Amino acid sequence: PCSLHVHTLYTHRHKDKHKDKELRHKEQKKDKEREKVKHSNSEHREHSDKKHRDKDKVKNFDGSGERHREKQDKDKRREEKVCFLKIRFFSGIVFFVLSSVLNYHLFHKHVVIHLVSGCRWEEERATDGSKWRFLEHKGPVLAPPYEPLPGHVRFFYDGKPMKLSAAAEEVATFFAKMLDHEYTTKDIFRKNFYKDWRKEMTSEEKSKITDLTKCNFTEMSEYFKAQSEARKQMSKEEKLKIREENERILQEYGFCVMDNHKERIGNFRIEPPGLFRGRGDHPKMGMLKRRIRPEDIIINCSKDSKHPKPPQGTRWKEVRHDNKVTWLVSWTENIQGSIKYIMLNPSSRIKGEKDWQKYETARRLKKCVDRLRAQYRDDWKSKEMRIRQRAVALYFIDKLALRAGNEKEEGETADTVGCCSLRVEHIKLYPKMDDQEYVVEFDFLGKDSIRYYNKMPVEKRVFKNLQLFLENKQPEDDLFDRLNTSILNKHLQELMDGLTAKVFRTYNASITLQQQLKELTSPEESIPAKILSYNRANRAVAILCNHQRAPPKTFEKSMQNLQTKIDEKQKQLSTARKQLKGAKTEHKASHGDGSKKMVEVKRKAVQRLEEQLMNLQMQATDREENKQIALGTSKLNYLDPRISVAWVKKWDVPIEKIYNKTQREKFAWAIDMAEEDYEF
DNA sequence: GATACGACTTGTATTTAATCGT
DNA sequence: ACGATTAAATACAAGTCGTATC
To answer: The pTM is what?
Structure first.
């Protein structure tokens, strides 16, 4: 079904190509000019430093249009509009109240500048690559300290109770808490856990505990289960108290001040210690994720801000003032040695702007995608192997929305691949399959070890190339041995400013949504039917991007529940219809006012029931079609929200039906910006 | 050009809160 | 008001991509 869908989704492209033929000519001319200008520019700044390049990049995005004179006017107008909208957007965010008089004055000064000169502070921020001018926050919330188990909860070794030291006990509880999880049955998980657990034991414990299978954690596990049960059974007052405490922490630590605005922080809690749960066949699953202390934490904030205080008797690893980055707090995690960050919520200015920028890049790709496609098709014939590989890979990325596929260190992570890291064993070639020719079968594990399976008929030239790439190779050899993401992205960068492999995913997702919405929405259908159409368009994208989910455990049951509801409605409807008929015949006989009213009442009842039945059926279809497909990821990360906003405005669908509260906050910029006629 | 690192986006799983039917 | 579902929020793992370093 996947390949079918993808195929139908992509048929429109051929149509478009004809339409765009003349346009393409123009585009090519423009691009040539652009390249000339770019070339001379690059000569000019041969010795210019990185800062200069950053400057240009930002300017391009902002649409100041220095390079394209013909576009200057249009861009200027857009820029003005954008600035205006930005003011609206950001003034929509709750202004915070500054306590100190000095800050109060500063604040007003900025607002005045802001209003008088449009988004001047924006430009300031953008030109030197800095992300903010002022940043103040309270630092992270540390994980609560370990609370030793009460005396009656025992750990047994080899059938005998054994008191563990605090350190060893804590790690044991991590395992106990996961006892019901499949993880604890996996060999690697157990091995890694045991190895790290031993490191926490006293020498006495080490000599005594020699075999994990002799360890009995059940009493601990039962205790935690009882605890969580008790939490559920708590009285209202107690629950309220906890909620209030959480709210207080949120108010204190959940917000920061960035450039005159109070912004919500995304994750202000430091990850607590526990056992690492990798996805898929992860070689490090079960390892101990150690507790993060203040001494491990780097704070990032303004020099002139009130620095967050470390807990009494401790100190931060470092306090730095780097406004070239957006994070507030960072620490190094001990499993992969990678850095983790505390950053702002998606509703923040800094994230919203970046998101917007992402879709603008995708829209620029839209303008030149035909040229690009023509180019990679041409490259299939290249004399050079590396160019052919590059072209076929790009074709896959474009057509199948595959990820770039960086190389990963072997043995450090689960064995997953993307386009550039595909291996011979991941594809099969079928010169003929059923009634199709030149079919490629993909079967590999992608991000998060989610399986990608698809059969796609390709053009003869691609097929021949693939045969060539496979020659004299072992199954575990790279399919594209002359290619990696760095080479590919460098090439893409030359084709279009800011273009990388992932832009294709954004572009294809958004353009598909727009096209599907156009195709599926019919003007006369009801609101619920329109929502079904929207979800179907969204689904088309999710299928394209391979956003699968395991069918919910209670799926069948909830489907049945819905069906019984539908049956009930149907019964109600048929009785209501009978009553209407009866009322009608009665009215025919009597022609009285009372009977006439009765007919109306019954008619209304039938109408209402019909509507309710329709809605239920719509819901059922939606749910059934959504069984194995997750819409969230594409909605949040790939679909230009302005397409949805425009659609909602065009058909008078309440926006709450498409975006929940959080999503509306994240997409506030788009909701403010897009009108009914927005075109991606 | 290989490699490591840092910053940031994308993605699924789990936990918590809201909603629904009784 | 209550328990069961369902949706939203959170947690954190796993990608992408640019840059520094050798």
So the answer is: 0.81
